[in-house]
Amino acid sequence: MIELHLKKLRKRDDINAEEERFIRGLISQTVEIPADKVFVRAGDTLRESTMLLRGWMARAKDLPSGQRQFAEIHVPGDFTDLHAFALKRLDHDIVSITPCTVGIVPHERLKEMTEKFPHLTRVYWFATNLDAAVHRELTLSMGRRSAISRMAHLFCELLIRLAVVGLTNGNSYEFPLTQAELAEALGLTSVHVNRTLQEMRRLGLIELENRWLNIRDLDGLKGVAEFDDSYLYLEKRQR
Predict the structure, then answer these.
(1) Domain spans of the chain, in order of start
(2) pLDDT higher than threshold 90 for residue 219
(3) pTM (global) more than 0.90
(4) Which fold does the domain 138-232 belong to in CATH?
């Protein structure tokens, strides 16, 4: 299952055979997580990071009132908390959206990487910077984009991120988020999410049925989102 992670890395850089062997040795064990569980809790001391091998997860922050905001959605192939290697604790939770399989990566192995594999170190440094770029785009969406524009933007982004790891079928992909979870990802109410989805269907942009999203008019969806994929840094470069 680590193949999806390698696909994501190789989309943006070259990984040689020795580096691949080391990456495959990063995981000390795999863990199965049920849906809707907090896997990493804010404030806990961390000595390992989590690679998502199957399923969807999110970085989440909760208000005392119980309201939740997703700060980033993670799909297979992502490190959900690589930044924990440097921070040693998180200011947010890592939660499962669906049943997930994750690989546990001890920080000692990441430290070994920084000492023995300078190129891989740069590759993973880039990965944390990419996460930050995705987060900045979400901040822009929630601060300045309309509800339909921010939803369209998320759908376009996920299409690209899932295509990178081979989890799309044309312009369609599995979309396991409930309307409540989509509201938590976009800073909307569930009622507003429902109305926005209805409007997107009326415009012929999407179909969402049985947890499967079919983008019927990709150009139209990109137009509504004013989508520019440059923040996803899809070009391959040697780092």
Answers:
(1) 3-112, 138-232
(2) yes
(3) yes
(4) Arc Repressor Mutant, subunit A (1.10.10)
